[in-house]
Protein: Glutamate synthase subunit beta
Organism: Streptomyces ossamyceticus
Amino acid sequence: MADPKGFLTTPREEWPRRPVRERVRDWDEVYVPGALLPIISKQADRCMDCGIPFCHDACPLGNLIPEWNDLVSREDWRAASDRLHATNNFPEFTGRLCPAPCEAGCVLAINQPAVTIKNVEVAIADRAWEDGFTPPRPPDRLSGKTVAVIGSGPTGLAAAQQLTRAGHTVAVYERADRVGGLLRYGIPAFKMEKRHLDRRLDQMRAEGTKFRTSTSVGEDIGAAELRARYDAVVIATGATAWRELDVPGRELAGIHQAMEYLPLADRVCEGDLEVSPLSAAGRHVVIVGGGDTGADCLGTAVREGAASVTQLDIYPLPEMERDEDVEPWPTYPKIYRLSAAHEEARDLRTAPAADADARLFAASTLRFTGDEAGHVRGLHLVEVDERRRPRPGTGRTLPADLVLLALGFSGPDRHDGLIDQLGLAVEPRGTIARGPDFETNVPGVYAAGDAARGQSLIVWAIAEGRAVAAAVDRRLTGAERLPTPIGPYDRPMTA
């Protein structure tokens, strides 16, 4: 604790964002380049080095937050990087994309603004790359054991890196043409530029991890054949089976799933396309779903030049402060949060009829209507109460010629045949069943991440990858060598 009075004398200061009208003209990250390092040491000083740091429990990775806060406050960046990477393979990802449940669990947050843990994390990660503190770490010797990892999202990448560094020969199979899963084709570049992903992948290749792109296991290669080739298989395909909206008019053209829309925008940024076939340019866009994926669609549509963009959230407008009776500290509260995309929509007035920024809260879609050509032109909605019952007399119609469904995911997509070919047991909700060691009902086949846990946060995905790697290594070597941050049945803290 470098400054024992830091939390009393220093106010919370976050990484400033670029002006809205500047940043919506490009796909670069929304934050002011270079503006974080000058403030971050003082922000780290606000950490109280608590006797019982609840931020540890709020973070499934068990990040050593007070330790690296203290090191940053002293500007010992190398040691801070070592402590950060001791629990997190990809802090440059989580520092940009995680909603920071650790900050909700910060003891200071009981009665003051929390420590800017997320900003400290990304500052350490970026400084580590700049100063060369993250060289490849290939194993000293190979074990002679082989592992296939199916899926190259954060879970698959974390598992692969841990197992490669443990000396196993690891191949990652990815059905897309590039590695990264939703980090590549799903997360917009304005939230995380792909250079951060590419840099980490180069490190993994130098360590010995092999990548097999454009390979769908179950289609391009049989799942049973793959299992026969390797000593162990880790399934980390994510939860890509999107939820549908079963209302009249769903069959109209112009209604698409968010994960049909977002990857095309990413491909434009990759240089694969000049213009997205689903571009929002000049169109009235309505996004159904109030979560992070919906906000990603919002920021993307704004950058594409939509005529208007409105986001529907079936939940009521959240309160500005935590309700201690319902969601007491240190749980992660549902409060009103203004993401970069919502700030942009608010300032640009993309949705004049919205309750706040671009969002209509407590809004439920009744039906879609279209024109004679069969293209959607309107979305009919109604306000609902806390039990999602319609409120009489609250119906209205929004103009809509592009509707994006961002309703979440129910489990892994089964169209490739992977689950059926291996004969994997599936939970009633559609996720892959597994035991206490992450192993499925098929010996030597493990399931981790959203494919087994269900839709979750990136920090949980990385924790799952590290934990399943420990389980696989234990099977292959008979020894406890890798950390296990979580078990398959662990869940976030709730009241």
